[in-house]
Amino acid sequence: MIRIIGAGLAGSEAAYYLGSRGVEVELVDMKPQKFTPAHGSANFGELVCSNSLKSDDIRGNACGLLKEEMRRLGSLTMAAAEASRVPAGGALAVDREKFSAYITEKLRACPHIHIVCEEVTSLPERGVIATGPLTGGALYKDIEEKLGASLHFYDASAPIVAADSIDLDRTFTGDRYGKGTGDYINCPLTKEEYDAFVEALTTAERATLHDFEKGEIFEGCMPLEVMASRGKDTLRFGTFKPVGLADESGARPYAVLQLRKENEAGTSYNLVGCQTNLKFGEQKRVFSLIPALAHAEFERYGVMHRNTYLPADRLLSNDFSLRSNPDLFFAGQITGVEGYVESAMSGLFVGIHIWNRLHGKLSEAPEDTCVSGALARYISTENKDFQPMNANYGILRQSVCVRDKKEKKRRLGALALEEIERFKATIYGEGGR
Fold first, then answer.
1. I need a surface site. Which of 273, 321, 374, 431 has the fewest CB within 10 A?
2. Strand boundaries in 44-156, DSSP class E
3. Is 2.20.25 the CATH number for 160-305?
4. pLDDT tens-digit readout, 339-370
5. What are the domain boundaries of the chain?
6. H-run or E-run covering 307
């Protein structure tokens, strides 16, 4: 019996990979008996910060390429995303409730997966720890005591507004550079409106953080007010950039906030890239300065919380097992991979590595010519400046020497998928699954 602690994306992936192949699995999660401050659903695989799994572009985006690698290996997360996707241009966005319900149903329906509702308070000698970036309490302390100092950083989520409260007369629809099917609602701002928004944003009152939550802010989840404080035009070159967008007249606005569907019905919209730590009242005041959101009804305000991750570069091997105890695996964002897809990937590979061991096979990560292999090798390679890592082309082995960036990405993508097919063949044989 393989014991997996935590039923988020990573734990669910590992459990389903093994259980669907006949391995007896005990999947332990404290839901619904207890929830973290960021979780609210009793379902497994709950998405907290956003409903977007980022780009779905296989040829031009590293996270899109990672998704394809996972699809070829039978990822539960990718199957759930396909079954619950909502229009989002070139991105893969999902209806959160349908997404987690799909994962939960698959796990509960598998006869080899035995679900236990229990809060684990100590580090076991064997199994899988997939308790996520909000690991806390007694388990957090036990990990600190047994493995050494744990690291942490801040993470933040964006507000969600009701669709029927958006002033559509002050918006235009369309995807950046015309990619997609016009799924985003774009909220344009003039220079005067943008300047007033930035002024209000940078001077607004922020929520107080507890002493135990103090740590570094991860660049990939930077609160909007922190980004704006770096310079008046910072947002215009980032979250609010107008490049690739044009209104009905063909003119490019001075700045643009994009809204993305939060659910399949299109009744709620997410403020893209607007993760924040402002007090709730301040969020309503500041975001209401955007003309299209002047009368917006906020269904959920942005929140900020501490994310926990290990100094994995010193503790983990590239198969995500503990160097000091190869019978104990870690999976998910606690390992130092950052993002929904990356977290799920680690759980999928933990399942694969355990499967290999059970069948007497040597198990190592794929080569770093594919995104999943590169991430596994990144988190297990000592680095004095170690911090969470997203999927990106920079961590891939740079084995392609061409000047054209699009062509280089295309070739790197081809090599990545070749490596995944090679890796898959080592598990199941040619053409196996």
1. 431
2. 52-55, 85-86, 91-94, 113-117, 127-129, 151-156
3. no
4. 899 999 999 999 999 999 999 988 889 999 99
5. 2-150+310-428, 160-305
6. strand 304-309
